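Researcher: Structure prediction, please.
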Amino acid sequence: MNGGTLSPRDPTNRFPRPRFSPAGRWGVGTAFLWIFLVSCIGSSGDALIQKANREWIKGRNHSAIELFKAVLEKYPSGLYAQEALFRLGEIYHFSLGNSKQALLYFQEVRQMDRQGPFSYEAQKYIAEIVEFSFKDYPQAIIEYQNLIQWYPDRAETDDHQYRIASIYYKMQNRYQALVELQTLLEQYPDTPWLEEALFKIVEILYTLDRCDEAQTYYEHFATDFPKSRHRDEIEFVMASCLEEGGHLREAFERFRSLKGSYPYPAVLETKLAGLKNRMKHKKIKRR
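Model: Predicted structure follows.
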């Protein structure tokens, strides 16, 4: 993906009418649908939108799609068109599992009016589809950055910043993930992601052999989240920092305090056994 936008509609002939007679080879069910749609063409935009939404709610995806396309035929631009495109994207994404087609509709919503009432949600869907459905992580980062840049007043900007950090982490770019998490804490100090961010920062700093810096973030974490679900894991990380720094006795005691609560007991026992041998070799007594 290069960030370009394709149109889900043919600009030269957006909605060619199917060439069939209602009683012909298309079948009775399709004939009734066609009659239903023709009767709706004269309706107002609001009425068409409402009918289309009702069809979707009832699980009639095909008729809902045709009704929203009828809206686009009658109102090729403006709010009705934006809503119709947005709903088509939702139907294809959530009901039909066609994320590729959904992406095209959401992109057209965004292009039609970046500040329109459906643009922000469309851009969110774009970012999520690119990240989770296509796993195009570099493009997903761009789409989340666009959310922050284009909609700075939205309450969820910290969510988008956290997603950027998480994607870098998934890409195993620990350095940039750390930068993005630190940016999150600096720009959004009250973010609900604070607990997760602090934990990840400590973990990353350990992997980067920067345990002195990790201690500061650990103290923040321990003070603010003493009952965190990550408590045992972060204690394990800090014990590992002590071990790496040559503080074998302190590391052993810290690891031992996790017995019975650490989620990976086999790993913990391996750590303790290894430390016992090292301490015995160095003639360091356990407390």
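Model: The radius of gyration is 28 Å.
Researcher: Thanks, that helps.
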